[in-house]
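User: Quick one: structure for sequence A, then sequence B.

Assistant: Sequence A:
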Amino acid sequence: MTWKAPQVERTTQLGGLGVVPERGMLEGWLNWHRETLLAKCAGLEPGELARATVEPSNLTLLGLVRHMAEVERWWFRRSFAGEEIGGVFTGSADGDEGLAGVDPADAERDFARFRAEVRACDAAVAGHGLDETFVSTRGKPLSLRWVYVLLIQEYARHNGHADFLRERTDGATGD
């Protein structure tokens, strides 16, 4: 049986985020966007996930999943938490921030790595205050709050891309 991207059971409902404390709101929106990206992939086979469907772009759904694992690792673990670790996918064969170098044969592994990275990122910032800061590679102080907002906008932008990629793959629309 061919592996397919699993269905996503929503753990975050946006309606419940309207009056929660700030940390819960930021975590909730981030989780909702993480789940949305995976929902855009649900039910697709590896070849469909790795297919560029919006010409002339070579962007793929699998590339977006890989890219977001890289982005989360960079900001939460490497930048904020100061972990001295490499990339998730960005080796010589994996291209720019995980977007290139996708291989349908690695789709199941790549999804597992994404999920593991999300868990590791959540663990890296657990117990830290939103006002805690670090110095960016450009020498600017940034807060954990800033990182959450950045990640939310990054997912929102790429989930828009995922909308088009999925629709062109099989006609599915919606979140």
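Sequence B:
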Amino acid sequence: MRPTHLPLLLFSLLLVTTVAWQNNGETLDLFSKNLQPNWQYWFGTDWLGRDVFSRTLKALLFSLAMGGLSSLCCAFLSMGLALIGNINSSFSYVINTLVDAWSSLPHLLVMIVLSVLAGGGFEGLVIAITFSHWPKLTRLLKIEIEQLRNKPYILHALAFGHSKTKSYITHLTPHVLPQILTGTLILYPQALVHGAGLTFLGLGIEPSTPSMGGMLSEASKYLLSGQWWLALFPGIVLVISSLLLMSIGQKLKRE
């Protein structure tokens, strides 16, 4: 196996495990509460006797779904704006101004405001992350399209009477798909961590729904009482997942 495939294999195994794991970690067992990690409960149990390992897997699945959907939506939004920005100089000026203005705003504050305005919940997190992460990818795709639009096949399509919009969508999009895929994978770990940060702040997700940020937020209340495992193991899983996604994105970018 090539070393470059190892992060992808590990992440795939992690994803399959989160999907296939049957226990959702919601079963209450007050006779087994606050147990440290052992052979039966690998990550220990919480203050309600719930299996922290099972809850961590289901929380990770929720966070991966939220981060993946956010990254895809952001990629589509960035591609659309990049195409619009290459129609003519006026649109290019407008898109560049939007990118510069949006990039100058405090990132975390933008996500919090958007999440509140969107009403919270899963959809609110997706909207907040999507509309706060688009500027960098939009700028990258816009520059890439600017370099491609003077290629002979584009000029020939325009000479035969095709509109700029049709020519760009038909001929440019296939050439920027690798950049879109790479940008999506690079955005994925950011969306994962930022989504966890928003849920840690208690924005939009019900406490009964397992999420990485929610678990870490709840665990912070019990650290002083010595229940260190409630935050340690979910935090390690979140960090490992983010590092694997970052490694996959970086390797794909180099290739």
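The chain has a mean pLDDT of 83. Residues 48-254 form a domain with the MetI-like fold fold (CATH 1.10.3720.10).

User: Thanks, that's what I needed.
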